[in-house]
Amino acid sequence: MILASKRLSYRLFTEEDREELWALDQDPEVMRFITKGEPSSMERIETLFIPRMMAYNLPIKGWGIWRVSVSEDDRYLGWVLVRPENFFDDQRDDTSLELGWRFFQSSWGQGYATEAAAYLADQLLALNPELKQFMAIADKENEASIGVMKKLGMSFSNETSFLSPVTGCSEPVVRYVKLIPR
């Protein structure tokens, strides 16, 4: 079980959280590097996002999408994704966990994404003894996400492509990795 950190609280999203998942995706700036600014419809949340999220939701391992909120007042800030790298293709790797994040624009620049991802990564080590690395991908123009990756101790690995489940297109991304000494 993953407990709250000093200023943030965490819980895994479920199918019942569709409204919160949808609300975050309504800001074109939040969606800028994901869908070129197009907000998600509730239909997309219900028919694409939630089924994909539930496919890798495994609480005993800490996999899923973690709702992040301010501990003091439970204000919803955004989320952190945790899943095995390449979960949806034939190169799935349970020894490499992908971290991803999406936060409301009002919380940007306050260290929440870095704090939440770092805290969850630390907690995940005990739940995943086979873990060899953490990784993350981002659009190469997404300087804020790349900055979070660097603050998490990740280093540039390579440029690759990501098949977007939303657009159905292969999107160029940068991949960063942090090896775990064991």
Automatic annotation (TrEMBL):
Assigned keywords, A-Z: Transferase
MF terms from GO for this chain are: acyltransferase activity, transferring groups other than amino-acyl groups
What are the N-acetyltransferase domain coordinates in residue numbering? 8-181
Q: Extract the Pfam families matched here.
A: Acetyltransf_3
PROSITE patterns hit by this protein? GNAT
Transferase keyword on record:
yes
Coiled-coil region: none
What name does UniProt use for this protein? RimJ/RimL family protein N-acetyltransferase
What species does this protein belong to? Answer: Umboniibacter marinipuniceus
